[in-house]
């Protein structure tokens, strides 16, 4: 009871602390994106392959680019505070709606990847650490090394070549079968089929990290005093591994997972591009090259919130795994 | 293509008698099978669907299925009937009367009348369309004597305007949904209501757009396809793979990369065509900044023009999809008598020798290290081919003692450098000639197109009073012979001055699933309505 109340208070305080953090991030982001040369009007007119001075002036005015920078900043700040996030003139849509549309697919891909990479990664790490320097250990380590070192886009393309073109088992890209427009459970199955390759590609890379981390962490913990104590208590090796070592060995993995979530948003750009997955990474990439600053800043803002939220969650998980850690 | 066809059109245009347009029938070999879904790859994803506000390439590929225009065009670049069934012109070329169909309905069921045409042209296209501002510059007013008659009143004759009335270039939008609203931010921008063969259904950002058959389309029985889906896949290799597995059926404008075309078309059931781009006519170029040394010197510009091996670029960079360009105007304009090959020829076998000799004579002697001078060469940031093109140019320049450093930036940075800051010496570039030189050519070569901050206009900074005059006169000349002669003289003078190296006329390629037919039935290609397309 006391612990739960402590936790709630802790979360509340962290949320309050997050506000100034986000404001600083938002300001730095704003300044950073305005350092990039060229603007949205240039790009939009450039894509048309034709433009008149009147048209350029009209675009600049519409995008608010003819306003002084501090006015643009105050406008933007207002948009953030009200959570409106502004309007993407390029996409002709409110930034918030654009991001919300993409958040689902992104979270689906991220969630699947996190579960898959941590689950399989920890399992393989555990197996490898069970008998260090055995054939099994070497095989797992080499697999992890190769998976880590291979470029994501190449793995993705090879998967497409093998599973889509050669074997014809899975679709090459997208999130749904475009020509079919399924509904209900058939839609769920359809999305799942489309999710396999991108999730597998992305997981392979992150899994490699967890394998190595888990293995070394397990080995380190198994030499600790508490393990000797447990053994002298007469516990079986299985009980020692599962009840004592594993719990402690998980801590660095959880830390890493927290850090990775931020990376995952970026790393998924490549996978989203290759598989045409309609996620936020792709939207950010597009926004950058179009100098769609409202949209780009909106995505940064959501990403910052996401990372802060995950950090809080990780801290809470910590305290569950290791009661010595107190949240205050 | 018959060589008199477009001349006939222009003569007809000059005549005051009424002209009846033939319906746009292409071939009628039995009745096509109804049904089927065509999945087209559109790259990149369009930013909006407002083709009346933006000419950004991918927008037209989808919007042309929804919106109709007054005309369509045949492969001789002659107008054929669409919303307008006939038209006539006054003797002075300043009054043009169009007769409209009386059975056309917008997708919301309201009839399309002369009021919609008037509103679209005067209030939308002439004010906000990036090219419309120019296309309709001579237009004073549009009158509507009755619901099915439209009268254009012009300041001067405008032969080029008649080439810009397709559903892609000048889409007719419903007045009742736009009038009195903020046209630049209309809620119908991304929820388009047109009169075309397909109705907009939904747009899942980052995934697809869906268009379903319009059962009340005014061409009875058409369209044959049940549905068109535009898909967006960012990665070129994945698009090729999806084409191979049949997940997509159609890709135009480089959606399928050139290096994959040969391989894919060997796959059973996949075909390709370079037709359907006759109103685009892109020319791959190298632009000099004639404001800076040494490119203010015509001898240097000519020498570099000689040094570029056109055939090498075509065969090795663009996989054979092109032919050598002779000057600013594409040979696609040959049928109308506008194009002439009779200009100074830089495409000679011993080009590098000629160039070396010219540079020696011009006083740009080689230094001890073998170089004459150093430059930075900017590369058009539009993909792999352009990078290889830049690498070739570097080598070609090295042969004549010019050391080039390559610079590759992203699109906004490049546009800013070339069209706003003029902070460049020599850049690769391309220019689409479009439907008429007034629309496609003037912007690159006229003095009035040297406009800081406006993209894809005169970046080289070159112009002369003489070429300005020729372009101005040609713009309002309705006699095709005289108009052709003016453009011939323009080409001669411009090629002599070499503000640009015209390297090749690029052929775009469309790759498609051969279980479909009649996908490419006009010079607008993928920018047309697809009302004739069907399962084979």
Note down, in words, how this protein is organized.
The complex is a heterodimer of chains A (328) and B (536). By secondary structure, chain A is mainly alpha-helical. Helix content of chain A is 78%, strand content 1%. Chain A contains twelve helices and two strands, in the order ααααββαααααααα. A two-stranded antiparallel sheet of chain A has the order 1-2. The longest helix of chain A has 39 residues, at 237-275. Chain A is globular, with a radius of gyration of 24 Å. With 536 residues, chain B is α+β, with helices and mostly antiparallel strands. Chain B has 16 helices and 22 strands. Chain B has helices at residues 5-14, 57-63, 114-128, 132-135, 175-178, 236-245, 258-265, 298-307, 310-317, 351-361, 384-399, 411-420, 437-440, 442-445, 465-476, 480-497; strands spanning 19-20, 37-41, 71-73, 79-81, 84-89, 95-100, 139-146, 149-154, 198-204, 208-213, 227-231, 250-251, 270-273, 282-288, 322-324, 373-379, 402-408, 426-432, 500-506, 510-513, 516-517, 534-535. Chain B has a seven-stranded mixed beta sheet, covered by helices on one side. A six-stranded mixed beta sheet of chain B has the order 15-19-14-18-16-17. The model of chain B is unreliable at 1-19 and 23-28 (pLDDT under 50).
Q: How would you sum up this structure in a few lines?
A:
The complex is a heterodimer of chains A (328) and B (536). Chain A has 328 residues and is mainly alpha-helical.
Name the features.
heterodimer, A: 328 residues, mainly alpha, MetI-like fold, 12 helices, 2 strands, B: 536 residues, six-stranded mixed β-sheet, 16 helices
- Which regions of chain B are unreliable across 5 or more consecutive residues at pLDDT < 50? 1-19, 23-28
Q: What low-confidence regions of chain A span 5 or more consecutive residues with pLDDT below 50?
A: none
Roughly how many Å apart are the termini of chain B?
A: 26 Å
N-to-C order of helices and strands of chain A: HHHHEEHHHHHHHH
Order of adjacent strands in the largest pleated sheet of chain B: 9-10-11-2-12-20-13
CATH fold-level topology of the largest domain in chain A: MetI-like fold
Could you describe the largest sheet of chain B, including whether it forms a barrel?
Answer: 7 strands, mixed
| Class per helix and strand makeup of chain B | alpha+beta
- Proportion in β-strands of chain B: 15-25%
CATH class of the largest domain in chain A: Mainly Alpha
What does the radius of gyration of chain B come to?
24 Å
Largest interface: A-B, 60 and 61 residues
Order the strands across the largest sheet of chain A as they lie in space. Answer: 1-2
Tell me, what's the shape of chain B? globular
